[in-house]
Design a protein that fits this description.
By secondary structure, the protein is an alpha/beta fold. It folds into 2 domains: about 5-75 and about 370-410, Urease, subunit C, domain 1, CATH 2.30.40; about 75-335, Alpha-Beta Barrel (TIM Barrel). It is built from 16 helices and 16 strands. Strands 1, 2, 3, 4, 5, 14, 15 and 16 form an 8-stranded mixed beta sheet that branches. Strands 6-7-8-9-10-11-12-13 form an 8-stranded parallel beta sheet. A hairpin with a 2-residue loop joins strand 3 and strand 4. It is globular and about 70 Å long.
Amino acid sequence: MSKLLIVNISPLVTLAGPARPRIGPELCDLALIQDGAMLVDDGRIVAVGSRADVEPHAGDAELIDAGGRLVTPGFVDAHTHLVFAGNRADEFEKRCAGITYQEISAQGGGIRSTVRKTRAATEDQLFAAASHHAQWFLHGGTTTIEAKSGYGLTVEDELKILRVIRRIGQSTPLHTVPTFLGAHETPEEYHGRADDYVRLVIEEMLPRVTSENLAEFCDIFCEARVFNLDQARRVFTAAKRHNLGLRMHADQFTSFGASVLAAEMGAKTCDHLEQAQPSSIAALQQAGVQPVLLPGSVYAIGSQKYPAARAMIDAGLAIVIATDFNPGSSPTTSMRIIMSLACTQMKMTPAEALTAATVNAAYSLNRGGEIGSLEPGKTADFVVHDAEDYRELPYFFGDHQAAMVFAKGVRVV
């Protein structure tokens, strides 16, 4: 790999700081450098600082002129559903006409609709579609994503999706962190037999997933009409036996103890949390669980109830924001749009939103020592934005493409 010297950066957002996720006032400390420069060698950051300090050590490095523009770490999207077939634009139209997301799901739409299409697609067809989605992420400045299965709901179809996630990480510049979400919904053939399906997840899916080393985490959609607390506990207990980290879809539509269970079971993250109560927030804080907030899904389904981000920050939680990219409830790959929603609807500051979309997200994926900030020794994943101020990222809330994107020190956009 070539040696790079990136100069004429104003400002350089390093997010340098403690080697842990950021909380409270730390969320606003972006560690900015005006007239910054960065030296990269063999895909890793060698030096970060002012141009006057860094440039004398550049040697024969290739010069990259940022043109006086903003440079940040690559976005880290900690909750996506990357792999699926088709879309649900028809359901979007129904929601516009006043039919709720839950009503559509009860009529056989929603997740089950995407499951039918995904089961019918070959692995190569899913790979082609996911490769297209990967380019959307990269052009928007996202260099790492967590990617879930969950649209197969049979042993072979779940494995098929996870293999596609692995292929995307191996064959595109987008880094992928795989999560097994076999307990995303009860499939149609198990209607009324959720316990039997949970048994399939535990006894057949989890052993195959882990024997083929296809996932790092296990997730479950714990919701009153999907999987209950007992079923979630059983899945998580089995996942821990297989040495998988835990993530949970919780408190999206109802609050009945899911997030408290996630805290009790030692989950890495608890995602959604639109209906989280103060007692849930306290439990998550005490257990060190990171909340992953998904304002894009609230917006897209036409809900008015956003997560209580300010209460979570005030409680000392290491907050994360993510797109929840999926074909039904959040069809966006743009972290800038998510940052804008976080600021306007959840009353986060632009600095808090940027921290939540980078370094905190990296720690939620066990990647905080590698990505999420621009510090010597870390992977050179960074973005040159068509902006001069970090506050422009959520302020101009259209789906803007980045001026340049680098993954492992290689320009990919």
